[in-house]
Amino acid sequence: MTMLQPAWVLNRKAYGDSGLLIELLTAESGRCSAVVRGAHRRKQGGSLAALLQPFSPLLITLVGRGELRTLRAAESPRPSYVLRGDALMSGLYVNELVNRVVPRFDPYPDVFISYGESVESLSNGLSERTLRRFELRLLKSSGLRMEQLSLFYRKLMTHLLLRPERLGPLRSPSYPSWHSLFHGLHQLLHKSVPLL
Questions:
Q1: Three-state DSSP state, 58
Q2: Residue 163, SS3?
Q3: What's the rounded Cα separation, in Å, for the pair 39 and 20?
Q4: Residue 136: partners with Cβ closer than 8 Å, 6 or more residues away
């Protein structure tokens, strides 16, 4: 018998005629991809595609052992969180952070719990504090100690303030400052941009 595990949908794409390809953050399997066959077909409870939305807490069953799993069952223990406006943009930002920072098939229980808390907080209204808390927990879960994190933030801020041309199109006032900050963080972590 397969067990249901808690999960969140990070993003989804069409797959074939009636299927979906979804990226999940799960409590037990970490971040993983799954195919959902026949997601748009009407069943007794309606379309499975309607259930598999970002910011919806789910209980799912995954089968398979390769890079791409198959979703066998999904149910929602509660209604989906509704994010609008800036809260929606912040939620999408959090999803993108998880996609880029959390490795596949490596469970991060702290990140999973923090993600759920962040989505709930964002559904009650946008909060910079929510985003900062999530970023900090994500970086800590990645193995950085507080001293390293503090030093890293100081270097990052110095880098961004003294070399703003490195931000490219993100310097536009239409982008939130947190987006520019994390873009710079991502460049420093993954693209080996020299600090000064």
A1: strand
A2: coil
A3: 6
A4: 149
